[in-house]
């Protein structure tokens, strides 16, 4: 080791893994004042959502359940900067969000290779950076494993497990008669583009050959299609079903599985182009991945293990910190090799949306300062089949980063937060515009004491603590015309610390794009000639100003923006004032500017 350079960092919080969960956990903690080191073993952030894998972010079903928080902030920035949804520009948006945080040290191309323990706590991690051929030791108070593969599990001896539980263990209908080590597999995706002329495709000699449609028959339950869809189109399938490896060792055999996936992917495209009439004459192969996207590997064990029955029973948790709503989507371990009735069926079972996820699944049962978020949380194989999607993982990352902020400030372990400060954690998440099912944000007393120049009905809507559409179809916003002032007035100078506003991000995404797949999250797969660029949510505020009246002769403008891209806006005021004014000047194309909340604290 002495022949290589060796760097050492000391921080409050070390995050291992820069997928959506880890990146958002790091940003959250950094914005709340924690010193963070983010370690990512790839050259870019985003994990399965990055340009080298290109799986689209998915989350809870129902437009009223669209995930918000930092994930929404990233998506809106990407829509603004990247209307054609170029995957590499999306990489840049995520990277920029991290690099903008002065409290984050980012180590890309860096793998964690060992740990040093201090009793039942992690003292430091040892990492190797491929690009600089150097070692990096990170010492921290708290560690989060957001690697997906739970890379800290083995060296720390944290309790963890791999594979599928027996039915008898948790009484899950999706369980096996006998527990096994099989998992869901990994996929390599392909993306294609429609052109104005015929484009031939000559397959490499090593590609598999599928000269008929027999590969398209898939064993699924009655809730899911029994066909591997390979029709082309802008709104078409992303070929997620090019999947292998769940019946092998998903960690040890990754390189072997990757090679098989590449041969399979090229073979599938050869089939579409050269075997049968698929209307693909003018379509060309635009991109093929060489890094498999994983669905499942090791899962940590925490104080609580989330189960299929918790999800389908819509269980309420006192320590709810996030929600899910994707179906129980359990892919057959054989993946692409699975054929019709000859193999065990995959399962695709409906879930309540949203359902609650508790804090106790985000920290280790036996390692005091180890937390985790993403597809490796404390949950059964069946439950992970729903919680693993990246919209849900992003919410888990924001909850984790917020929890570490409290732990670090108070000098406590996660288990102590769970016992003593869970309400504080929940309130902080609500303040950051994270929906927690059954909980309603409390409006600050300062807001209730102000005189507001709105109707009683508008005030009631802004102060109902509900900041989105609800399942009953009620949209809890008010609509203001361009140029409208919203004023808070006090009878005497009053200390105001912050203005908080929730603008309308268009939870349906119907004003952003006509394509249903992009409406789930603004990421594309294929580009047909009918492709149209996405646009900003039409009723989101584009330009607005904030002014204050100190009571000494009029209004002073203290903030102005011409191109707002955020749904959550907060502004520190920190003065004694008799008035605060928000002037909504222009939307992104709608006839009104919609607000879900506007209050002072």
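Q: What amino acid sequence fits the structure above?
A:
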């Amino acid at each position: 080791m002495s022949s290589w350079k060796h760097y050492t960092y000391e921080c409050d919080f070390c995050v291992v893994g820069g997928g959506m969960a880890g990146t958002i956990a790091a940003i959250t903690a950094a914005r709340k004042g924690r010193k963070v080191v983010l370690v990512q073993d790839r050259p870019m952030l985003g994990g399965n959502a990055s340009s080298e894998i290109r799986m689209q972010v998915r989350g809870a079903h129902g437009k009223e359940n669209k995930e918000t928080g930092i994930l929404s902030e990233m998506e809106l920035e990407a829509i603004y900067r990247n209307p054609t949804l170029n995957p590499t520009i999306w990489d840049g948006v995520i990277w920029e969000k991290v690099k903008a945080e002065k409290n984050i040290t980012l180590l890309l191309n860096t793998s964690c290779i060992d740990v040093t323990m201090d009793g039942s706590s992690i003292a430091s991690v040892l990492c190797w950076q491929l690009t600089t051929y150097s070692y990096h030791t990170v010492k921290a108070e708290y560690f989060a494993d957001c690697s997906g593969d739970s890379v800290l599990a083995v060296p720390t001896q944290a309790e963890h497990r791999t594979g599928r539980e027996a039915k008898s263990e948790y009484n899950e209908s999706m369980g096996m008669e006998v527990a096994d080590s099989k998992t869901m597999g990994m996929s390599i995706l392909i993306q294609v583009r429609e052109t104005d002329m015929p484009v031939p495709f000559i397959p490499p000699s090593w590609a598999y050959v599928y000269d008929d449609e027999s590969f398209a028959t898939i064993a699924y339950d009655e809730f899911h299609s029994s066909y591997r869809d390979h029709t082309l189109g802008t709104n078409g399938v992303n070929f997620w079903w090019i999947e292998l490896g769940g019946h092998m060792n998903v960690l040890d055999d990754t390189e072997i599985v990757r090679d098989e996936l590449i041969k399979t992917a090229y073979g599938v495209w050869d089939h579409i182009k050269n075997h049968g009439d698929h209307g693909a004459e003018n379509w060309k192969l635009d991109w093929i991945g060489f890094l498999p996207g994983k669905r499942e590997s090791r899962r940590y064990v925490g104080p609580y293990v989330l189960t299929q029955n918790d999800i389908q029973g819509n269980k309420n948790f006192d320590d709810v910190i996030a929600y899910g709503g994707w179906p129980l989507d359990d892919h057959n371990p054989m993946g692409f090799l699975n054929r019709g009735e000859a193999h065990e069926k995959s399962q695709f079972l409906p879930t309540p949306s949203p359902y609650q996820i508790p804090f106790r699944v985000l920290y280790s049962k036996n390692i005091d300062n180890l937390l985790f978020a993403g597809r490796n949380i404390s949950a059964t194989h069946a439950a992970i089949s729903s919680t693993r999607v990246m919209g849900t993982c992003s919410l888990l990352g924001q909850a984790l980063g917020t929890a570490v902020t409290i732990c670090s400030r108070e000098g406590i372990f996660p288990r102590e937060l769970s016992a003593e400060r869970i309400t504080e954690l929940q309130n902080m998440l609500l303040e950051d515009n994270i929906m927690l099912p059954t909980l309603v944000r409390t409006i600050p007393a300062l807001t209730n004491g102000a005189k507001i120049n709105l109707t009683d009905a508008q005030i009631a809507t802004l102060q109902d603590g509900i900041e989105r559409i609800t399942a009953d179809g009620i949209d809890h916003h008010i609509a203001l015309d361009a140029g409208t002032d919203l004023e808070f007035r006090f009878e005497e100078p009053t200390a105001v610390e912050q203005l908080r506003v929730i603008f309308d991000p268009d939870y349906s995404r119907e004003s952003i794009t006509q394509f249903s797949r992009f409406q789930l999250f603004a990421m594309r797969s294929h580009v047909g000639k009918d492709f149209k660029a996405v646009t900003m949510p039409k009723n989101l505020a584009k330009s607005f100003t904030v002014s204050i009246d100190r009571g000494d002769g009029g209004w002073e403008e203290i903030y102005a923006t011409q191109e707002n891209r955020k749904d959550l806006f907060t502004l520190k005021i920190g003065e004694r004032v008799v008035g605060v004014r928000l002037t909504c000047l222009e939307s992104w194309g709608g006839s009104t500017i919609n607000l879900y909340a506007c209050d002072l604290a």
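Q: And what stands out in the fold?
A: The two ends are 53 Å apart (CA to CA).
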